[in-house]
Amino acid sequence: MIKLDDIRRHAANRPEQIAVVDGASRLTWGQFADHVDRMAAGLSAQLPPTRPARAVHLADNRWELAVAMAACATLGVSCTGLDVEAGAEELTGLLARIQPTVVFVSTEHRQVLDGCVWPTGPEALHVLLDGAEAGATARPAGVGSRSVSFGALLATEPLPNLPIPLPYESLTVVPGEGGSPRVAVRRSAVEGRHLVDLVDEFGFDGSDVHLTAAPLAQPTARGLARTFLSLGGTLVLGPHRDPAALAALIVEERVTTAVIDPVALVRLLSHPGSEALAGSAQLRCVIALGRHLNRWVVNTAWEQLGPVLHLAYATPETGLNAIMGPDELHVAPIRSGRMMLGSSLAILDQDGAPLPAGATGRVAISGYQVMDGYLEGEAEFTTLDLGQGPQRFFVTGERGQLDEQGRLVVTSRGTEVPTVSRNGAVDTEIFRLEADLLNLPCLRDTAVMRVDVPGLGDSLVVPFIAVAVGRELTGYKTLTAACNRRIPSLPAHVIAVDHIPYSPTGTINTDELLDSVLPIIKLNLQLEHTMQQEMSA
């Protein structure tokens, strides 16, 4: 997040201009500077001696969180976002590995934090982001033994001189898909280079009003928020769970750029309030992570928002690497993109050698945004010379190819299959089947899951959301035909649903989804079996 020196510079030039918008709360640059100054002073006075100094936050987007993150950046304290929908067991494991010295938590997420016990927990400073009057010093009930309210820290007198920042460190949680989350580590500051590349790529400037309708725990959302604040623009924290409010906010705040969570984007485009945005809004660039976005989203975004949608390819380990702009989206397959400034791509064979365009292999990424490694170790890197001298590449778990235009096309990902891989060829086809379905314009959303449960055996479960009410039959026929064509060896159970659950980090919550659809599928099979018996009697 942006540091106090940059905030003070903007406050000196435009003290009354709005820096951060959060619902009815609006912080001018002057107020933002004062709050961050006091918060940094309050944190500095209470930081425990444990080193390295690390902070985590368990909170939805709010202006208090923006202030806290800026204060941490000013002090050189890494501030890592945690998944607000994670359970106590997952959070406990992450806290034990990160060992934070400061924990920022909001009221609605205090209960799950109370269920987490980790070795350094009693030594950490717990900061409650809301629910306390300014100047309060009493320990908020239910949190750690060293606790203070946000208001108490905000009442701290600014320090004449801030302490020397601690050595740089940045931690990012890598969501666990079929396994426990990991933590990516970077020990070199890249914010300045990233700012320059984003400005060159998109033409961002200080006049932009930027909407963040994605959790700040997401690296892409956090990086873009930092970029626009660094430029002196306005940051609007959007209600990513309320599409009506989101549509109204885009118009009312005259939003020009946005990063929108994939789930929030689908909800926005499905809501009647978005139909007039192309004519009434000021939008010129919307960035969304494209892992699960489909052809319906691309087409509808063009109709309702205008030619503004950019699908991004980004990972916590490698940063924002590839992008697909509005024009290319109509001719290129989903899950593809061209490399951005500062990133290089290689496709590797099984021996780690680079492959030519058109060949499929492991995807390897190089660039200044690539992590140094996992906090737990065991990351796969390789050094390659692709004509610009030796470069260090992170070897991902994905497979892909470079097409004739030099775009990356992701063709398979082992972690996409939510069960233990039983057959590599079939699992690769499952990923390709999902890509086929995402390119169908008759679906709003879908998921492909391989299961092996009593009553179904080894089979596919394919829930989908129809493009409109009354179009479920079309979707059912289309998906069933695609499943039979791509993977005839496995029976496919296609079922229309109203909702596909996602985590705040954009991954499908397969457990919740299966819990909701498996009973319906089994009931349908029982009814079908009963009807067949009656017909044969």
Automatic annotation (TrEMBL):
Source superkingdom: Bacteria
InterPro entries, per database record: AMP-dep_synth/lig_dom, ANL_N_sf, ATP-dep_AMP-bd_enzyme
One Pfam family here: AMP-binding
Residues of the AMP-dependent synthetase/ligase domain: 8-109, 200-375
Entry's transmembrane regions: none
UniProt cross-references to Gene3D superfamilies, sorted A to Z: N-terminal domain of ligase-like
The protein, known as: AMP-dependent synthetase/ligase domain-containing protein
